[in-house]
Design goal:
Number of strands: 13
Strand order of the largest sheet: 11-12-7-13
Mean pLDDT: 92
Low-confidence stretches: none
Helix content: 10-25%
Strand content: 25-35%
Largest sheet: 4 strands, antiparallel
Oligomer: single chain
Order of helices and strands: HEEEEEEHEEEEEEHE
Shape: elongated
């Protein structure tokens, strides 16, 4: 039995979970998330506890068991607290400016500024010009938007200039010797 899949999911007060035939809807103070269940995985609700189960020990069902439990637990956590990813910008003249909660403009050494629009459910914060905070209730979407921003100008290996996750260590290469 999967160690992750076996763990029950506690549903805090103020969060309602609706189980349909093949989908789960979680509604909380931050918003609503919906997901279709993969394969033959089932979810049962007993009071304020959700349990994920699989019909048999086939390889695909074992793989989907822990995954489904993690996805539903992230949905519950997302509608209660939300998720955020911090990015930092390193480089002379590299900066970000907020253009409202739904977009940012990045100066990353290109001949033009790069404008990034936030998808629905995602907001940007720029507390200082070299830091971007991506916030939202869907963990997958927050991570994907942060990865897309990082992809615009990845940290280069010689000086470390570019966009990186906050606290990410970039191993710098040594310059070519004569």
């Amino acid at each position: 039995m999967s160690r992750v899949g076996r763990a029950p999911i506690a549903v805090p007060a103020g969060v309602s979970v609706t189980l349909a035939e093949r989908s789960v809807t979680v509604q909380g103070p931050q918003g609503t998330l919906e997901r279709t269940l993969p394969g033959a995985i089932t979810i049962a609700q007993d009071g304020d506890v959700l349990t994920v189960s699989r019909p048999n020990d086939e390889r695909t069902n074992r793989a989907l068991h822990g995954l489904t439990r993690s996805l539903v637990a992230n949905m519950v956590a997302g509608v209660t607290e939300g998720f955020s990813k911090e990015l930092e910008i390193v480089g002379v003249g590299y900066r970000a400016t907020a253009q409202g909660p739904g977009s940012i403009e990045l100066a990353l050494g290109f001949s033009h500024p790069v404008r990034v629009q936030a998808p629905e459910g995602i907001t940007f914060e720029v507390p200082v010009p070299t830091r971007i905070i991506v916030r939202g209730i869907d963990k997958e979407k927050v991570g994907q938007v942060a990865a897309d921003i990082r992809k615009i100008r990845k940290p280069e290996p010689y000086k470390g200039k570019g966009v990186r996750y906050f606290g990410e260590k970039i191993e710098l290469k040594e310059a070519k010797k004569k």
